Amino acid sequence: MKAGSGHVAIVLLAGTAFVFLAPRPGPAAKPRPPSESERIKALPDEERQWLTEFVAPIILDEEKKAFLDLEAPYQREVFKREFWERRELPDLPSPLGPGYRFGMRSCVSSRTKSTMAGARTRVGWSCDGASRPRS
Fold first, then answer.
1. Is the CB of residue 43 less than 8 Å from the CB of residue 51?
2. 111: buried, middle or exposed (CB in 10 Å: 19+, 13-18, 0-12)?
3. SS3 126
């Protein structure tokens, strides 16, 4: 055996052991999906206001999730049209039925004006007088 060949063998053996015994990289960590509040913040202003102010008292959780899952503006427009169509069927009891969205718009508008004037309000109170906020 030549001098120094023992050192070469040890280096080769150590290198081979490193290759086989080194920890393997695991699967890349999946990025966590954005939270609901992050998804709402990512909406355009008009869409965010529609969701968080205008229909907040009446939108169902499933509808809200479906709206947030939409990616394109035209999809959200179709969703909003169908949202109101479901609530404005002619045979629905009052306050639902034809014209419901316009009653909601009036309610939200008056609530916004009251809030701006300093009146105490609760989110989601109806405008029919049955559940107005107490002063």
1. yes
2. buried
3. coil
Let me know how long the chain is.
Answer: 135
pTM of the model: 0.57
pLDDT in tens, 34-84: 999 999 999 999 999 999 998 998 899 999 999 999 999 999 999 999 998
Give the C-alpha distances (Å, rounded to integers) separating 24 from 14, 19, 20, 78: 17, 10, 9, 48
Coil/strand/helix, residue 103: helix
First to last CA, the chain: 100
Q: Kindly tell me if the per-residue pLDDT of 131 is higher than 60.
A: no
